[in-house]
Amino acid sequence: MSFDHSNPANSGLHPPTADRRKFLTGVGMAACAGLMAGDGQATRSAEANQAAGQKRKKPAPTSGVEGIKDLLAGKEPVAWVFTGDSITHGALHTKGWRSYPEHFAERMRWELKRMRDIVINTGISGDKTDGLLADFDWRVLHLKPDVVSIMLGMNDCTLGEVGRELFRKNLTGLVNKVKTAGAIPLLNTPNTVYLKNAETRGDLPAYAQVVRDVALGTKAVLVDHYAHWEKSKPDQEALLKWLEDQSIHPGVFGHREFAKLIFTGLGIYDEKSPTCQLEVE
Predict the structure, then answer these.
(1) Sheet strand arrangement including 184-188
(2) Quick one: which H or E segment has residue 67?
(3) Measured between alpha carbons, how far is 118 from 72 in angstroms, rounded to an integer?
(4) Are residues 5 and 11 in contact, defined by beta-carbon separation less than 8 angstroms?
(5) Bridge partners, 159 (sequence order)
(6) What are 252-280's pLDDT values in tens digits?
(7) Number of neighbours of residue 72 by Cβ within 10 angstroms
(8) 3-state SS class at 231
(9) For residue 187, what are the CA distances in angstroms to 16, 219, 221, 273?
(10) pTM for the complete prediction?
(11) What distance in Å separates the CA atoms of residue 8 and residue 5, rounded to the nearest whole number?
């Protein structure tokens, strides 16, 4: 019988049985080692993800200024939402100068090098608490904020004494919505006004007090601009330097003063900062 060397089955190239066993054993060990390495990588990845998850744990909505400081101490980006009426909107009366949310963005995203932070302004000229409540999902919630700054009352106060409790109810509702979303609420009292040209705002001091009361009752952060302006500009004529329309709307200096007081309240004021050094007359 002739032997067909062209047939691989008869080529004689198969290793001996013992060698084949060694080969297969080696392949099996390598496969096991690969699986073990894969398991190790998966474990390390899971541990890393768990650690990252722990780092990303947000402060409680009632944690106040300390909670905001915790956010700033971390490396995760923070979403800041500023909302309110025309004063927050910063339209027209800023005359091209930065509004206080814009100063905040400059301080946070450039000077403090938190470039992945997002600072969004959803203030609308002429708005009141009921307007923000009705539009809260769009102007706040869908932005998934970590901190929500609210400044309202300038327009609500035109209702006078009869509108105080409605303002309290609406503002409390807004703060509760912020807290339910897991964000930290920051309430701002409005600025003082030039009463000769703002007769419809005569009840504003009472509304500023409502803001203080709501902040205390809900454990929201409070930045009391009204008290600061009363102390800094007690004379009505001197106050005009901070009011562009000579009535209720802050101009360039007023918005700078807003920003500086917020920086001070949050512990991020630095006299060496270009933004903090901006002139205020």
Answers:
(1) 118-121, 79-84, 147-151, 184-188, 221-223
(2) helix 64-73
(3) 13
(4) yes
(5) none
(6) 999 999 999 999 999 999 999 999 999 99
(7) 16
(8) helix
(9) 84, 10, 6, 24
(10) 0.81
(11) 7
Residue with tokens 């006078």: 160
Burial of 33 (0-12, 13-18, 19+ CB in 10 A): exposed
The strand pairing partners of 107, in sequence order, are: none
Provide the token pair at 29: 């060990």
**pLDDT > 70 fraction of the chain, expressed in percent and rounded:** 80
Closest Cα to residue 163, out of 125, 123, 207, 131?
A: 207
CA distances from 111 to 78, 108, 114, 160, 268 (A): 15, 6, 8, 41, 10
Find residue 79's DSSP bridge partners: 118
Amino acid type, 162: V
Handedness of CA 190, 155, 85, 196 (dihedral sign): negative
Q: In the numeric block, which tokens belong to residue 24? A: 């297969």
Per-residue burial over 5-27, b if 16 or more Cβ lie within 10 Å, else e, is eeeeeeeeeeeeeeeeeeeeeee
Rg (CA), the chain: 31
CB 190 within 8 A of CB 208: yes
CB 156 within 8 A of CB 207: yes
The C-alpha atoms of residue 281 and residue 260 are separated, in whole angstroms, by 13
- Token pair 């047939």 in the structure block, residue: 7
